[in-house]
Amino acid sequence: MTCLGGYHGDTFGCMSVCDPFGGMHKSFGGAVRESIFVPKPPAIMTAADEEALVQEFEKHNDTTAAFIIEPLVQVS
């Protein structure tokens, strides 16, 4: 599971968790693994935001091995 809007690299494993709309999925849709995407969290999460994320984990708990998220430290 990962967030919409993310970028994690250009290799096939990384592309599978990059944003499905702005990332490489359109070009390599048949070659990258299908992932579960959740909305990008706001900079300051509220209790409601946290609850929505928990619900996504509960909804996909039988098919989720990890939650991949990166900080925006490389944004210029």
Order of helices and strands: EHHEH
Fraction in beta strands: 5-15%
Structural class, by secondary structure, is mainly alpha
Shape label: globular
How far is the first residue's CA from the last residue's CA?
Answer: 26 Å
Secondary structure: helix percent: 25-40%
Give average pLDDT, whole number: 83
Care to describe what's here?
This protein is mainly alpha-helical and 76 residues long. The chain has one domain (2-59). Helix content is 28%, strand content 5%. It is built from three helices and two strands. The protein has helices spanning 12-15, 25-28, 47-59; strands spanning 2-3, 37-38. Strands 1-2 form a two-stranded parallel sheet. The radius of gyration is 13 Å and the shape is globular. The chain starts with a strand and ends in a 17-residue tail after the last helix. The mean pLDDT is 83.
